[in-house]
Structures are given as structure tokens and as C-alpha cells.
Amino acid sequence: MSAERRPTVRKMVKEAVEALGGDTTNTAVRDWILRKYPGTNKSTIQCHIVLCSVNHPSRVYYGQNKPRIASDERYDFLFRPDKGRVLLYDPSKHGVWKIVRHEDGALGVAREGRPRAAEVEEEVAETVGAGEPTVGFQAEDQLRDYLALNLEAIEEGLQLYVDEYGNAGVEYATPVGRVDLLGEDGGGGLVVIELKVGRSPDAAVGQVLRYMGWVKRHLAEGRPVRGVIVAQHASDRLRYAVADLPDVSVMEYELSVTMRPAPGLDEEGQRV
């Protein structure tokens, strides 16, 4: 099939699930697409299964799913009843699912009517400028969630890794520990990303090497594996620790905050 006539991967996924009877597995969807559309990137297929599944907790890390109610038919057409399995989404059976911001500020998914989930109807505007107060992340999970949504801040073309069961590379569970972030670069290589917030340099380097060893032997299938340590400040100890490790790099981050007046309300309580 010519490149001009190939549908988007999102449409391929929907076509595959419909062709497979509306109740199938991630693996079956992937294999169906690869048979009909040879050469489609496997990881891109897995990512689209996640971002189009209304109740998958990792869908919030994809740009198409910035905070909104689950009412966009382009991306809200799958439901995940079990790990590695998908159904065509039916709100009358599965409930209405939304992307929400919880009380602690973290994004998540929740069925309509559940308590402790504040509906987010507008995209949060973030403005970063020079010369403004610099801040850092107080907790590692805050830095992790930010980077999961902005992996291209680390490297252009970097995206979350998703395995054949639909598990995304955020706090990715392995027998040797949880990887903070596991990405896939534009060339198909795997990138182990470890976050250093309040940890010693030796601990951060030891963790990234341990996870790289496991990923290389169990996930990579011959693809290159490298590591990235993200810290607000890279100390001399950390730089020396990775100086002779060609597959491990260190990146520093810096954040800024911009203040702006909040919208007012009219007599009926509507924003103005």
C-alpha cells in the first residue's frame, strides 16, 4: 500500500479493533495492523492503543490528551478491561471517563461521578521566560510526571515506551526495581531515564546501570540501550561517576514561573 493511502496509526488501531470483533488483545491489534500495513512502527501502535483507551492511567502522558473531558471521538474509542486487552468503548456500558486533575495536582483518569477528582475543562497555560524566579521540583513524582508529558525536552523524537501489554514507561515495573521513565528514541533505541531528587550520585548511577542491564536483556531485542540521569544540579561527584560511561549522560533542568492576573467573574458567576 502506498504511503499516500495509508491511514494514521490511530485509524489503523480503530480499524483493527473493529475487524477483530470489538473485543481483542493488544498483541492481536498489533499483528493485524502489521499484516495489513507492513512497516508500521510497533511502538507507535502500542502508544496509540494507550492514548485511545479512556480508562488507561498512562493516556494522560500523551499530547493528544491534554486535560479535557472524554468526549473526543478521535481519541476516545477504546476501553481496557484487563491488562493487554481492549474493547470498543461504549459509555452506556463502561461509564463516561474523563481526564481529571486530582487533589494533589496529578493528572489521572476517572469515571464520571467519582469523588476526589476535579474536572479539568481548560488546558493550563504555561509560560516560561528568562529572568524569572527559578524553582525546582520538591518531589520526584512531580518531575517524573512533567517529563512524561514533555519527553522532547530531553531529546527530539523521544517518546514513552509501551510494551505489548499496554504498560507505558512511567514507573515501569521490572524484577530489579521501577524505572522512573523508559523511552524510545527516534531510531528505535531504548532510553532509561532516572531522576535524581534528593538521592546520592552513586545511588542514581547504580540504579540507571541496573535498569539498563535488565532492559538490554529483556526488552531491547538487540536495540541500543542508553541511560539519562536528570538532576537540577549535576555535582562534580555525579559528573565523575559517569565520565567513563559512554552510554550514560546527565542533564540538568531549570524551571521558571510567570505570574498573571486571574480572570474575573460577571454577575452570573461566569469568567470574563
In short:
The protein is an alpha+beta fold and 272 residues long. It has helices at residues 9-19, 26-36, 42-51, 91-94, 140-149, 201-218, 236-242, and strands at 23-25, 78-79, 85-88, 97-102, 107-111, 117-119, 134-135, 159-160, 170-174, 177-184, 190-196, 225-231, 248-252, 255-256. The strands form four sheets. Strands 8, 9, 10, 11, 12 and 13 form a six-stranded mixed β-sheet that branches. Strands 1-3-2 form a three-stranded antiparallel β-sheet.
CATH class of the largest domain: Alpha Beta
Largest sheet: 6 strands, mixed
SSE arrangement, N to C:
HEHHEEHEEEEHEEEEHEHEE
Known CATH architecture of the largest domain:
3-Layer(aba) Sandwich
Average of per-residue pLDDT values? 82
Estimated structural class: alpha+beta
Kindly report the CATH topology of the largest domain.
Trna Endonuclease, Chain: A, domain 1
Note the total helix count.
Answer: 7
Rg over CA atoms:
20 Å
